[in-house]
Amino acid sequence: MGCTSSKGTVDVYSPAPSSFAVFDINAIEEPWLKPPVHREAPDEKPSNVPAPLLEKLQAIEDAPRTWDEVSKALDDLNSLPAPPAPDSTPTPNQKPPPRKSFSFHTLEELESKPGLKKAQSTNTRSRVEVAPKPESGTGEVPKSLKDNIFILRDRQEREKEGKSSGFVNKWNPLNDFEEKCPPSGENVVVVYTTSLGGVRRTYEDCNRVRQLMETHMVAYDERDVSLHGGFLSEMRELLGEGVGVPRVFVKGRYLGGVEEVVGLNETGRLSRILNWARVERGVGRMGCEGCGGARFVPCLECGGSCKIVVVGGQRERCGECNENGLVHCPVCM
């Protein structure tokens, strides 16, 4: 049993007509083995080299390359007539030559010219003129701003009206602060402080202001309200009741307390204020050998007890010292 189709005859395989066995591979010509074909390019541009020179060049290329023949060929090339000069008229696409400049480059060239110069050119559209040099005595530019005639006239008018003739008050940095002058504080820096440490924050604020003044090397007048009650009265008269220390005054101007002074120092305004006010620099009373900067010493009459013995054995209040039995240092005052 089995399939009927499998009992027939079987055909033998034969290659297709397009097989490689039909062609002769040796008869194929490779394109790179064929000789080159010289064709003239249709778009070839004409050469500007003269025909005699072109023939000589071709003859040199075809001739054997010996030194004698090359030298002879070069001599023949040198004997050829020179080509005609090109036309000097500019073509539409060619740029014209640059025009001659009539400007000056140095101060000597400017001074060597007369007062007025006109550019002699047909292509110039404007007229170049040089202003004449002003004569000495009239028409000169002021050497400084102070010599300006308008400023001088304004200064004279201000002097006639009794006003200030300058602009110093406008740029005075102290004008931004209130005018409050402590006694004998017109030309010094006055700082109201305390040396008691009862209130820690107040004591630290006073030390911070002292440190700022020492950093700027300012010889300031420190007025300790804890050592002398008169200083406390002065500060209250200037600022009113309930105002604590420290308080800073610069030449009759009130700067403020510790927050204001620290803010001015951080922005750089404190240094400018002190420089403009021209305050005294140095250690000042801090270097006093008598009190060491405290400005007070014990009373020499009562020894700091505030009591003295009078005739009859009675004790009276000492009139030389304050409520604390202290007097101003005779060395630094």
From TrEMBL:
Pfam families the UniProt entry points to: Glutaredoxin, GRXCR1-2_C
Signal peptide: none
PROSITE patterns linked to this entry: GLUTAREDOXIN_2
Domain Glutaredoxin: 189-254
InterPro entries: Glutaredoxin (IPR002109), Thioredoxin-like_sf (IPR036249)
Coiled-coil segments: none
Name of this protein: Glutaredoxin domain-containing protein
Record organism: Penstemon smallii
Lineage of producing organism: Eukaryota, Viridiplantae, Streptophyta, Embryophyta, Tracheophyta
